[in-house]
């Protein structure tokens, strides 16, 4: 619900602390500051021991933190990204005395209203935060603060107001780069931290919560690498410094006065601060901002594979020592990975020598590479380690879309054959593999998510075309000492691997 501060000429609404719509990790070198020496660089070498307070740090960095004021023809809408991740405060309770007052600002201003048929079209003024990163006026903020903007201005600490242009935005990481319109080379600025923030490090958040102007809160880095299902590339810092609506796009500083994160989202069952906020790490922000400054948009490397995470059952069924890595379910035909020889069932365990633990981690690493660059993938295939070099393509917006489910075809009623793992299979009349006809309700196969209609294409690494092939593959896995058998399963055109535990036969 919007928190309104009214003036005679315009209305102000603090922009929400919002989760990203992106995908993350992008490519490009880190931001390099090449501004004149006349610039008043702030926030360097000001680290004071926590017991003495943060006053010197705040005095140093605050001049570079700005209030971002955005005019738009549509009001800010309440949106959520997953349970409790707030883009904006939730509605007031039905019996709240202020609910009726705030409801007048919720509907789009051009929407018909029988009670106010002649209501004029109005503009909404949203307020977020940002910070200056160069003496000539480049400013970082969140994409959701400036999206759909018709006019953007920033308010400096001394209350001077400057018009800015939007240089570029990246919805996947929820970052935006602004530039002061007039010629300046004397603006105070801050720099990104070069060292990764560690869990337990102090952080100081400076921003504009609720449109109140420069506000400072302090806390620590609570966790790293948080995934809040905002995008394919989630890699948030979790901080416990108080972050609220209007802090969006503002910086979190370390004790040296360098930016370690861009405040973006809050976790809140109630809408208020509960000590859990999320910031885009400096390393990710730098790579995105560098590209936006250079070209106005962000490009990402494209590998062209469908992936899934491993679990202990799958790792054992595939003969792996652990469940680290990203399992390739299906290479996209004609994409770089397939052209380089990557196959379904390969487990990607490294990119250019850097270890990969999950499918999401692989996606982030690939997205940070430039299109056209070569990457060396460390792969385990059938128990053997090999390296495959792939020349990446450019990721297009629609290449991450999930495949469209296909309507199930009507099947004949052939004789069914039950397997030793509680799955009844029949030959696939429409192609290769076996169709799951039924599953015993209390079987381990059912607990692993297999469903009637699934097509089992492979078992224990080999193709299956008859119930006899399927049972033989299960027996082979058992005789090899495996505690689970791997199944390559297709459902509605989407391929995945399933590890089904095997009962030990005495």
From TrEMBL:
Signal peptide limits: 1-29
**Primary residence:** periplasm
Annotated GO molecular function terms are: hydrolase activity
At the top level, the lineage of the source is Bacteria
Q: Which UniProt keywords apply?
A: Hydrolase, Periplasm, Protease, Repeat, Serine protease, Signal, Stress response
Q: Does the keyword Disulfide bond apply?
A: no
What region holds the PDZ domain?
299-383, 389-461
Q: What is its EC number?
A: 3.4.21.107
UniProt subcellular location:
Periplasm
Segments traversing the membrane: none
Q: Does the keyword Cell division apply?
A: no
Q: Which SMART domains match?
A: PDZ
Q: What is this protein called?
A: Probable periplasmic serine endoprotease DegP-like
Biological source species: Pelagibacterium flavum
Organism lineage reads as:
Bacteria, Pseudomonadati, Pseudomonadota, Alphaproteobacteria, Hyphomicrobiales
């Amino acid at each position: 619900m919007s928190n309104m501060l009214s003036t005679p000429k315009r209305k102000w609404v603090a922009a929400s602390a919002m989760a990203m719509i992106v995908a993350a990790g992008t490519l490009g070198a880190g931001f390099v500051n090449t501004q004149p020496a006349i610039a008043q660089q702030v926030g360097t070498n000001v680290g004071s021991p926590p017991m003495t307070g943060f006053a010197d740090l705040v005095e140093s960095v605050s001049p570079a933190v700005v209030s971002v004021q955005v005019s738009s023809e549509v009001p800010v809408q309440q949106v959520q990204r997953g349970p409790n991740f707030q883009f904006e405060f939730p509605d007031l309770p039905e019996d709240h005395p202020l609910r009726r007052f705030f409801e007048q600002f919720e509907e789009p201003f051009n929407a018909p209203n029988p009670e106010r048929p002649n209501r004029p079209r109005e503009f909404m003024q949203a307020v977020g935060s940002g910070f200056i990163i160069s003496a000539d006026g480049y400013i970082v903020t969140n994409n959701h603060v400036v999206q759909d903007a018709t006019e953007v201005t920033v308010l400096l600490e001394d209350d001077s107001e400057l018009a800015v242009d939007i240089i570029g935005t990246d919805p996947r990481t929820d970052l935006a780069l602004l530039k002061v319109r007039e010629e300046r080379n004397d603006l105070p600025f801050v720099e990104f931290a070069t060292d990764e923030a560690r869990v337990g490090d102090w952080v100081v958040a400076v921003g504009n919560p609720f449109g109140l102007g420069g506000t400072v809160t302090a806390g620590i880095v609570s966790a790293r690498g948080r995934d809040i299902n905002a995008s394919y590339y989630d890699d948030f810092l979790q901080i416990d410094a108080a972050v609220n609506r209007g802090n969006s796009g503002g910086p979190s500083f370390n004790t040296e006065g360098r930016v370690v994160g861009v405040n973006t989202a809050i976790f809140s069952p109630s809408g208020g601060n509960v000590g859990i906020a999320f910031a885009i790490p400096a390393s990710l922000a730098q790579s995105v901002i560098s590209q936006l400054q250079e070209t106005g948009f962000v490009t990402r490397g494209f590998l062209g594979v469908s992936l899934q995470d491993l679990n202990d059952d799958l790792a054992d069924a595939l003969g792996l020592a652990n469940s680290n890595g990203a399992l390739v379910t299906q290479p996209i035909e004609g994409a770089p990975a397939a052209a380089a020889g990557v196959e379904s069932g390969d487990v990607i365990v490294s990119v250019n020598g850097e270890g990969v633990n999950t499918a999401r981690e692989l996606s982030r690493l690939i997205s940070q590479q430039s299109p056209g660059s070569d990457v060396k993938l460390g792969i385990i295939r059938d128990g053997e380690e090999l390296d495959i070099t792939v020349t990446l393509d450019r990721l297009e917006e629609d290449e991450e879309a999930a495949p469209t489910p296909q309507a199930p075809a009507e099947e004949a009623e052939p004789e069914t054959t039950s397997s030793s793992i509680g799955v009844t299979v029949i030959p696939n009349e429409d192609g290769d593999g076996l169709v799951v006809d039924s599953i015993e309700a209390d079987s381990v196969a059912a607990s692993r998510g297999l469903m009637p209609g699934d097509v089992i294409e492979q078992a224990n690494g080999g193709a299956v075309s008859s119930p006899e092939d399927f049972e033989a593959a299960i027996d082979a896995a058992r005789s090899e000492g495996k505690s689970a058998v791997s199944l390559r399963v297709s459902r509605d055109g989407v391929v995945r691997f399933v590890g089904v535990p095997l009962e030990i036969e005495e």
